[in-house]
């Protein structure tokens, strides 16, 4: 049995508990919430229950199912609540790996395809690079460009986060080589012949720099920049591309400012060293990709100053800066795009997105637009049906002021996690994050997994990442009353440890 550390409670801690509970009561009295949403989780069977276990056995005969946790009844899921095949109702603070923006079965999304024109856009899925709908330019302008990161006036749509990053890399390499050619559009015969046998100069020796702990996808190019877990990369050939350290901070941040500043500086120095090393190796760095908060790798965050200096390094070395907002984009950090927290002096060169944005893709500046057709191309190039849904999502975000709500809920949830950190210092530490994009650590992987599994058995879905981290990824409609359920469940679990 671990010591709970109850004797460490201070007068300030007790005051904070009362403040948090009073705030929750006031919020519940003023909140409308999601119509038809349950008041709390309801677990009726073991987790997973017999129906989920039966379905898992059936699926196992067809594919590898080691990652499957539960089977859902999506007809019954609603708002912030996930209902499994056995009728168990969970408060979902993980939301399909952070990809459900406004909750399950939101009425605005359920109505999206009642319009026959939109239904036909869904049914007649086009090869967008060849036969886009007559409404496609307007859809891009009115939907995706309405929330484009400041300074980026172009967009390419894709299917998922991995292919968004893959094609961002291609765009960077083409941009880099175009600079080498002095902007000439024509390729030499040698370039065209050599690329067909994967040799320079047509297949140049260039690289994308990524960071230790980063995750950018599981397709081959993206995989060469993914550095989070060995299981993603084992047995797959990879490019000789550089990796640099990402800051690892000490918490609480306000008590370790000097050490964390030194950590920033050390990492930035190593970034520059790696760039020079690969230049000397004859594999120059054309682009750098970084997450605003490393998600799958352990919810590792870095300071605005770190990112500002990273951008300076890129500009000094003629390197494109790609910000991977696949998981952080569309509001969960309390801003539409997490990199907005950093107040960069100029826009990133490329920003990739997916998950809560429902479609994949990347925003970019004009200079990264390919000079030739078919260079960034595939059959579907995204899906108009997803933009129809995203249009509704963005309308709900604006009308319901969900970015502001995420800030408020996130503040309440983070304060509650800090309180638990004070109460149970032997169980929880390193509370961190922005908005509701939050995380905390346990002392060991085993205890982390025990906490996460016990949350699930008590009707709360969270996720794990890194070695010791539990991550919280609710929908943007997550309110303080939901945060209170999460915190109360966690507190009751800790009391039993």
Quickly count the helices. Answer: 15
What's the overall geometry?
Answer: globular
- Give the low-confidence spans: 1-32
Radius of gyration (CA) equals: 24 Å
Taking the sheet with the most strands, its summary is: 7 strands, mixed
User: What structural class is derived from the secondary structure elements?
Assistant: alpha/beta
Beta strand count: 16
Into which percentage range does the β-strand content fall?
5-15%
The helicity comes to: 25-40%
Distance between the termini: 6 Å
Mean pLDDT: 93
Widest sheet: strand ordering: 3-11-10-9-6-4-5
Description:
The strands form four sheets. The chain has a seven-stranded mixed beta sheet, sandwiched between helices. A four-stranded antiparallel beta sheet has the order 12-13-16-15. Strands 1-2-14 form a three-stranded mixed beta sheet. A hairpin with a 5-residue loop joins strand 7 and strand 8. The protein has 15 helices and 16 strands. It has helices at residues 11-30, 50-60, 95-98, 107-110, 116-123, 136-144, 161-180, 189-195, 220-223, 257-280, 304-317, 384-399, 402-423, 445-457, 480-496, and strands at residues 81-83, 89-92, 154-158, 207-211, 243-244, 285-290, 293-294, 300-301, 320-324, 350-353, 360-364, 429-434, 437-441, 460-461, 463-465, 469-472. It is α/β, with parallel strands linked by helices. It is globular and about 70 Å long. Helix 6 (136-144) runs parallel beside helix 12 (384-399) and helix 13 runs parallel beside helix 15. It starts with 10 loop residues before the first helix and ends with a helix.
């Amino acid at each position: 049995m671990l010591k709970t550390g109850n004797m460490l409670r201070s007068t300030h801690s007790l005051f904070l508990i009362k403040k948090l509970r009073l705030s929750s009561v006031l919020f519940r009295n003023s909140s409308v919430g999601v119509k038809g949403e349950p008041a709390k989780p309801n677990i009726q069977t073991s987790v997973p229950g017999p129906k989920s276990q039966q379905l898992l056995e059936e699926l196992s005969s067809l594919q590898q199912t080691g990652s499957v946790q539960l089977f859902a009844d999506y007809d019954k899921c609603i708002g912030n609540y996930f209902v499994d095949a056995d009728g168990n109702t969970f408060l979902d603070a993980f939301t399909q790996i952070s990809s459900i923006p406004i909750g399950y079965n939101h009425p605005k999304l359920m109505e999206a395809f009642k319009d026959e024109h939109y239904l036909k856009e869904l049914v007649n899925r086009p090869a967008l690079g060849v036969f886009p709908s007559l409404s496609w330019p307007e859809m891009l302008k009115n939907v995706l460009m309405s929330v484009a990161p400041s300074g980026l006036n172009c967009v390419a749509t894709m299917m998922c986060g991995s292919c968004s990053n893959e094609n961002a890399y291609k765009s960077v390499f083409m941009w880099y080589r175009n600079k080498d050619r002095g902007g000439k559009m024509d390729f030499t015969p040698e370039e065209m012949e050599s690329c067909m046998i994967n040799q320079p100069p047509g297949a140049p020796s260039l690289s994308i720099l990524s960071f230790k702990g980063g995750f950018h996808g599981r397709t081959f190019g993206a995989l060469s920049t993914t550095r989070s877990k060995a299981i993603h990369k084992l047995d797959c050939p990879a490019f000789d591309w550089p990796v640099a350290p990402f800051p690892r901070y000490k918490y609480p941040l306000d008590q370790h400012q000097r050490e964390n500043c030194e950590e920033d500086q050390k990492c930035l120095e190593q970034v520059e060293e790696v760039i020079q090393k690969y230049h000397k190796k004859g594999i120059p760095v054309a682009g750098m990709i970084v997450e605003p908060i490393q998600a799958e790798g352990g919810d590792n965050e870095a300071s605005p100053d770190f990112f500002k200096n990273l951008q300076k390094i890129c500009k000094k070395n003629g390197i494109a800066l790609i910000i991977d907002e696949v998981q952080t984009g569309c509001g969960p950090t309390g801003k539409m795009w997490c990199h907005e927290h950093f107040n960069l002096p100029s826009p990133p060169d490329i920003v990739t997105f997916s998950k809560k944005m429902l479609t994949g893709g990347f925003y970019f500046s004009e200079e990264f637009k390919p000079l030739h057709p078919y260079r960034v191309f595939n059959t579907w190039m995204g899906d108009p049906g997803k933009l129809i849904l995203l249009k509704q999502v963005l309308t709900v975000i604006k009308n319901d002021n969900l970015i502001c709500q995420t800030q408020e809920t996130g503040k309440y949830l983070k304060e509650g996690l800090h309180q638990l950190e004070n109460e149970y210092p032997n169980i929880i530490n390193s509370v961190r994050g922005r908005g509701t994009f939050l995380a905390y650590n346990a002392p060991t992987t085993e205890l982390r997994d025990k906490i996460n599994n016990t949350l699930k058995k008590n009707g709360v879905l969270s996720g794990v990442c890194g070695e010791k981290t539990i991550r919280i990824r609710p929908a943007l409609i997550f309110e303080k009353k939901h945060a209170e359920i999460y915190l109360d469940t966690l507190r009751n679990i800790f009391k039993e440890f």
